[in-house]
Amino acid sequence: MKLDRIRYYSKNRHYFLQLLTVVFLGSSLVVFLGFILRSWLDQKIDQKIEEAVKKEVTDSKDLEKKPPETYSKPLIGFSEQDNKFIAGSFSDTFSGTGWLTSVDGRQDNYTTGITPIPDFDLIPVAKPILPDSGRQCPQNYCLLVSDKKTITANGLDIDLPKFTGQLVSLNLHPLSNGWVLGLTSKEGELFKGWVFVFNGKNFVWPTGVNGPIFESRYSGTFGFAGSFSHWLAFYGSYEGRIYEFSNNKIFDVSYLVNPKAMRGGFIPKVFFVGSNWFVSNVSGGFPFFKFFTSNNGLVVGGLYLADLLDQKFPEDLRSLRVEEVNNKLFLELTGPSTKSFWFEMLDRGFSYPEKFQIVSRNLRAGQAQDMGRARLEKIAIYPETIKPKLFLANSSGNWLEAKIGEWFYFPQNGQDLYWQADFSGIREPFFFDLVRVEYGLNK
Predict the structure, then answer these.
(1) With 60 as the cut, is the pLDDT of residue 293 above it?
(2) CATH class of 82-106+354-442
(3) Residue whose C-alpha is closest to residue 95's, from 257, 251, 222, 322
(4) Is the pLDDT of residue 145 over 90?
(5) Structural domain boundaries of the chain?
(6) Per-residue pLDDT band at 81 (split at 50, 70, 90)
(7) Phi and psi at residue 383, in whole multiples of 5°?
């Protein structure tokens, strides 16, 4: 490191100067010049040390501002008690039930989160009259894609928008008041996803966009729904992507899908019904998602509905088709008999149990040391306005209230570690996505 080299020269500068003085020993003028040179070198070296120290401090501040994705916050502050503990940590993203004792809501193993209890019914109906899926002309603009690379508007060719890389696919979709275009290109080993809106003459960037909205290692296709003031873009690849465009702002909610939920990728069909988004597979298979919104109208969580439908359908569900008619969802479900049945999906949102607690298993079962302290280092709940009561315990049943980010020193001996989040009394949709606990074992 540059600073270490400067410090080495600084520490040994007297030896270098003494050697210089000995060479010219006997000449008083040279001795005087040596003294002047030594003073000048002292000043310059001190200046270089100061500059290097400032640069190291600046660099360390920049790293704190831009931590990597896997960055874990350092301990807040330091106390004399810190050296009395053996540090450890635990995280749960709720992709399975192995670390939870009880969940009064619903844990979704596909969107990997905990929500209130989904509340909907399937009402048997005759096959509805479905909208014409052919020619569509919002705002009197009839757009078509031909040869997978040419777009026409009212019979006239439209230039493709500018993009980089090799064209892979075009996905043209009507919104309620216009058209959007999803374009996938490939550049090197990466696929790039681009979105554009039609302004009556050309395809242009949406407000706030001036390039691809993402890069992915996997090819996919786009699905869209909504209006120009509020719309959703869903990229159906092995690694799904979801972007919500609302009031000229863009929100990345891709944390709600993962390879397990995407089931290898599919061609998405997106619906906006009520205040929520639904995504199905164009080919009639799985998956089937609901992305629900909070009180501000923005997406906060997701549900993998296929599992819930299977519980309500009298047969073993084999295939699924979703259609929208007059802002209502209709489902065609097929079982092993290959006979299909039509239902209207009556979505009520969620129900909220009076006692709504999520309790972990013992995170330190079978350990010999006493649990001296712990803290809930991070809790990810969307929307962030949802504030459950939080508790920690180092023995079963001895719950003590905790606060996010603050160390709690247990007043009694105990070799266990539990956490609890109590949502009782909360009557708003939420998505509980992550908990991370740090702890210290007594040495």
Answers:
(1) yes
(2) mainly beta
(3) 257
(4) no
(5) 2-65, 82-106+354-442, 134-304
(6) low
(7) -70, 160
